[in-house]
Amino acid sequence: MNRVPLEKKVLSENDRIAGELRERFREHGTLCLNLISSPGSGKTSLLERTLESLPGNDRVAVLTGDIQTENDAARLRRFGFPTKQITTGGTCHLDARMIDRHLADWKLEEIDLLFIENVGNLVCPSSYDLGENAKIVLLSVTEGEDKPLKYPSIFFKSELLVLTKVDLLPYVPFDIAVAEENARRVHPGMQSVRVSATTGSGMGEWMTWLEQRRAHAVKAQPVA
Amino acid sequence: MHEMGIANSVIEAVRTEAARYPGSSPRKVGLRIGELAAVDPESLRFCFEALTKETDLESLELEIEIRPRRHRCRDCHTDFNVKDYDFTCPQCGKLNSECISGDELEMAYLEVEEHEPSPA
After folding, report:
1. What is the reported pLDDT for A20?
2. A1 vs B113: CB contact, 8 Å cut-off?
């Protein structure tokens, strides 16, 4: 028997395409954010509120993933920004090849901010690099505070935690401080914001984070 | 449930690698999976068996090594395994460390066996 060392990532093909995407985003100064959460945590609602408050001439685009239906793209398209639905037909996550394919007829040099709304799932999307600058994880207050401990991978890999539906806090037994503490147990120092897409509470904080992240991405571009 | 896709990637990689050793058959592939990789080894094993069953790779063995989450203390540079989200450095007792491994999803090795030379 002959043992050959492989030392190769299992998802090396995905990682290769993701690496190419990341390089293209960098070249064109596009900030790419990958939004991940359980189904129904409010990714689309957060995006609706966000797109609504951005100036109409802002160079923003959205790719939204679901297993079936064009519903989310229809909701998000109303704000006038380029929006495309990715229907995976059963796959529980987006992969880099899907992103690459759906970006084919868009000009990245005309997009400063690209939102990717992943398929609702806290597990599988954490394994697939999409070439994004940052992952953002959402957790709604109607879920359990211990989700970060149950699904550590995605909380560990995300730059920001967005606690959603905070307008429901008076009606649910959810301890928001405990949820944040759990996230920080998995990911020490993790930043978080608390928002309600319904009342608009906390949206300012989220928009500030977004603005700072965009400024940071622009600054990071090498001087030509 | 993305283990099927992962099992498929492993099998594709085994085929690519095995093609470099003509006259041999792949016997065993070794994976390293970190605790933070969000991959269920049992589910992966099930998918792997389902995909290789009744194919030329039916006898291919799958070995999975689970890797713990490891941190390095920024103060005293000690490396330690993290259990139950306790990030306290066992050496200096401080809470100032960074993750250095534990999210691996890697193929470590492939074992190939040469075919018996056929009788002349």
Report:
1. 97
2. yes
Q: Which is it for strands B61-67 and B97-101: parallel, antiparallel or unpaired?
A: unpaired
Contact B37 A153 (CB under 8 A): yes
E strand spans, chain A = 2-9, 31-36, 60-66, 83-87, 113-117, 134-140, 160-164, 191-194
ipTM: 0.78
Q: Domain B3-69+101-114: state its class.
A: alpha beta
A-to-B residue pairs, Cβ atoms closer than 8 angstroms: 92
Q: Output the domain CATH number for residue A98.
A: 3.40.50.300
CA distance A92 to A90: 6
Q: How many domains does chain A have?
A: 1
The residue among B52, B30, B113, B19 whose CA lies nearest residue A10 is B30
Q: Which structural domain, as residue segments, surrounds residue A49?
A: 15-219
pLDDT at B115: 84
Class of residue B27 by CB neighbours under 10 A (exposed 0-12, middle 13-18, buried 19+): middle
Instruction: Report CB contact under 8 Å: B108, A7.
Output: yes
Every domain of chain B and the residues it spans: 3-69+101-114
Query: Do B10 and A10 lie within an 8 Å CB cutoff?
Result: yes
Which of B2, B39, B108 faces A6 most closely, judged by CB atoms?
B108
Residue with tokens 């953002």: A136
pLDDT higher than 60, residue A224 = no
Residue A152 lies in a domain: yes
The sign of the torsion formed by the CA atoms of B45, A150, A127, A141 equals: positive
The string of pLDDT tens digits covering residues A27-80 is: 999 999 999 999 999 999 999 999 999 999 999 999 999 999 999 999 999 999
**% of chain B exceeding 90 in pLDDT:** 75
Rounded mean pLDDT, A98-121: 96
Instruction: State CA A18 to chain mean position distance.
Output: 15
